[in-house]
Amino acid sequence: MPELCSLLSSVSAPPQIGRVTSVDNHPSGSEKLWLCKIDVGDGKERQVVAGLKQHVSREELTGRLVAVVLNLKPAKLAGELSEAMVLAAEHQPEGGDVLVRVLLVPDGCQPGDLVMCEGSEPAVPPKECKSKFWKEVVEGLAVRGGVARYKNKPLVTWSGPVKVAADMPDGAGIH
């Protein structure tokens, strides 16, 4: 498997920065899913079904900049099309509730900015990333030192590193 620098910038989807423009209840009435619209800077909003409802309030998510993966195959989740995925860190403390936090985008980012491995150069991604391959990528994504990483390499934008909330411990997964 290619290293992240080439993986996120050419083989897989380089995550991009998007702005959440709306957050609504999922039409199914799900207690876990938000139905979001996200501006990724290309003039077209993406619809995203995000399993964040029990962890992130509508108010906290609306207007927020987030890291999203765009070229996963669009899929219907609970009957609604999801055209991207919001990246979040997750940790299950022993005997505790699952802790989920949306990745923290650096100040100065704009919708459409790329998320890369530190030291890499962006390349044109394929139109669609296969879900099997993306699952392999997710296995290498984790938190260390308050920064989102892939195989220990910091994920960055042109404005700085992509971070996580202070309560997210080292070793927490990202997906």
Helix content: 10-25%
Gross morphology is globular
* Integer count of domains: 1
The percent range for strand residues is: 35-45%
Kindly state the number of beta strands.
15
Topology as a string of helices (H) and strands (E): HEEEHEEEEEEEHEEEEE
Could you list the spans in which at least 5 consecutive residues all have pLDDT below 50? 1-7
Largest sheet: 5 strands, antiparallel
Structural class: mainly beta
Distance between the termini: 18 Å
Instruction: Please list the strands of the largest sheet in the order they lie side by side.
Output: 3-2-1-4-7
Quickly give the CATH architecture: Beta Barrel
Name of the CATH class: Mainly Beta
Q: Overall mean pLDDT score?
A: 86
Number of helices: 3
Integer-rounded radius of gyration: 15 Å
CATH topology: OB fold (Dihydrolipoamide Acetyltransferase, E2P)
Q: Could you characterize what this model shows?
A:
The structure is a single chain. This protein has one domain (4-174): OB fold (Dihydrolipoamide Acetyltransferase, E2P) (Beta Barrel), CATH 2.40.50.140. Strand 8 (88-91) and strand 9 form a beta hairpin. With 175 residues, the protein is mostly beta strands. It has 3 helices and 15 strands. It is globular, with a radius of gyration of 15 Å. A 5-stranded antiparallel β-sheet has the order 3-2-1-4-7. Strands 10, 11, 12, 13 and 14 form a 5-stranded antiparallel β-sheet that branches. The chain has a 3-stranded antiparallel β-sheet with strand order 9-8-15. It has helices at residues 4-11, 58-61, 131-140; strands at residues 16-25, 34-39, 45-50, 65-69, 75-77, 80-82, 85-86, 88-91, 99-102, 116-117, 141-144, 147-150, 153-157, 160-161, 173-174.
